[in-house]
Amino acid sequence: MVVSSENKKVITVGLASFGGVYIQYYGQMMAMSLISIIPMLVIFLIFQRQFVKGITLTGIKY
């Protein structure tokens, strides 16, 4: 999917385009990275038991 509007981009694409060619805003980029990681971290923490159970079951041979 191609989006040309600046305010409808995915946060990771916005993060990649935020860095300038010559000037890097490391503080703001790290804050944006943390914000983009939070939803994935919340999902992992909610389903942590199922993730670990799935990983352990793949290592067990019957």
List low-confidence stretches: none
Largest sheet: none
Mean pLDDT, all residues? 82
N-to-C order of helices and strands? HHH
> Between the first and last Cα atoms, what is the distance in angstroms?
44 Å
- Percent of residues in helices: 55-70%
Radius of gyration: 18 Å
The number of strands is 0
Structural class: mainly alpha
Overall number of domains: 1
Share of β-strand residues: under 5%
Number of helices: 3
**What is the general shape?**
elongated
Key features of this structure:
62 residues; mainly alpha; 66% helix; elongated; transport
Question: Please, could you describe this protein's structure?
Answer:
By secondary structure, the chain is an all-alpha fold. It has helices at residues 11-18, 26-46, 48-59.
Element layout with pairings:
Elements lengths: L10 H8 L7 H21 L1 H12 L3
Helix pairs in contact: 1-2
Quick take:
The chain has 62 residues and is mainly alpha-helical. 66% of the residues lie in helices and 0% in strands.
